[in-house]
Amino acid sequence: MLTNLSIKNFALIEDVSLQLQNDFTIITGETGAGKSILLGALSLIIGKRADLNAVRNPERKCVVEGLFKVSAYQLEAFFTENDLDYEPDTIIRREILPSGKSRAFVNDTPVTLQKLAVLGNQLIDIHSQHETLSLGEVNYQFKIIDALANHKDNLVLFKKKLSVYKSLVNELERLKESQKEAKAAYDYNLFLLTELREVDLKPGIQEDLEEKFKTLNNVEELKENLSASSFHLEQEEVGVLAVLREVKNNLSRLENFSESYKELYERVQSSLLELEDVSEEVARLENKMEDDPEELSLVNEKLQQLYNLQRKHDLESVEDLLALRNELEEKVSSSENAEEELKDLENKIEAAKKQALSIAQALYKARKKEIPNFIKKMEAILAQIGMPDAKLNIEILPQQEFNVHGIDKMNWLLAANKGGSFKEIKKAASGGELSRITLAVKSILAVYGKLPTIIFDEIDTGVSGDVAQKMGDIMLRMSAEMQVIAITHLPQIAAKGKQHLKVYKETQKDITTTNIEQLDEEKRILEIAEMLGGKEKSSSAIAHAKQLLN
């Protein structure tokens, strides 16, 4: 429930603070006095978008702040989920800065407008004149019946299951399109893959083949140099090894004279061992070296295959070819396993459809069950407020296809007068009748919804006299369940309020300001008398006002 509303620098309001009661509050004032400004300020703290033009003085920030008692409405989970401090007396503040930037806070913690709107929708229902026209819209009609059927959890679950089902259907369409393209490219992809499979592709193969080719292509030069190297190493008496062995023998006779000679000896001996190993390796390579034109041709052929494939696919390495081969294998495999993949996805779609359908059928049954009770209550209330012969018929039929509400098609029909035929409610009801029907709906929802606060913006449009009195009685009864605030031009309704606020304009020094005053009993009599008979406030109007208040 809203206990306090503070508005600063908003439209024609300079600085207003209102204390609101937990029952039936009336707001009156002349046309143009600024009642809509009050609603505009309220809409800011429940997440509506801000308009920089609404700032009174653009050099100062605009602040709208509401204090709400929320302890009775099980909102702790919302605060926890959104990392907000939960307070039984929660403060919601909205600021519009001179720069045009808008900020929102819940208990001094910044929040997004989206989060604020979610919280605001659980605290206040602002019924505008536009909402009366919404009565003929299908989404609004479903919203009402679903609130009465109290199957919010099933609605959320259905939307999740429907989302899964639609996602799978879209995936099937994409798969069919993809497989259609893949089928057209299958033969070509298979040909390319076969070419790549014919080559023994593995990392490093190109480097190995190029080294082997270079060796086989230069056998004579390699043998010639290896033979010469072996000759110089192994030649008797003058070969490198023979000379080094002689040096070693000479130094061996000196090694006992000092550490320096010994070190020289060991170094020569180490060099000799290394050279002997080199000599053996040279001899081995020389013996191994053979001219093999057939092997050379085979290696060259393999290399040319690699080079041709790289040129063909505009790739630079064997690793790139391996990646291409893997890609082609996936495409070919996809085409070869297309039937199985389609079948698997179709089975998933069927299972998802069954799950969504099961929940949709439960929604249909719950709505079907609730509708007769709703119609009975509606017709009883309408009879009280000047529509005694009105008959309501709500058609609900299951369809073959899913929609956002399940599988149901709903239509509200009204026969406003005795003997009249049923027509769509938006065509059958006048403006005043739509107002009364809307009030009847809201009064029923008040019992089910447990919403803290509802605000009616001139819901009495198009009615007067006894009907207005009875509409006021309904709002008064609603205020036993929730906080009700009504903006009205009708004295019959204004007299029902427990608290009466008057919105008025005043001009000082060529500056017009909207103010709000809480009326005491004497001022209420004068205000209602003025609503009855104009500014003259005749004695009969004052007497009538007192009668209404009593």
From TrEMBL:
Listed InterPro entries: DNA_recomb/repair_RecN, P-loop_NTPase, RecF/RecN/SMC_N
Gene3D superfamilies assigned to the protein according to its UniProt record, in alphabetical order: P-loop containing nucleotide triphosphate hydrolases
UniProt feature coiled coil, ranges: 162-362
Segment forming the signal sequence: none
Organism encoding this protein: Mesonia profundi
The name this protein goes by in its record: DNA repair protein RecN
Job description of the protein: May be involved in recombinational repair of damaged DNA.
UniProt keyword list: ATP-binding, Coiled coil, DNA damage, DNA repair, Nucleotide-binding
CDD domains, per the entry: ABC_RecN
Domain RecF/RecN/SMC N-terminal per the UniProt entry, residue ranges: 1-509
Keyword ATP-binding: yes
Family affiliation: Belongs to the RecN family.
PANTHER family linked to this entry: DNA REPAIR PROTEIN RECN
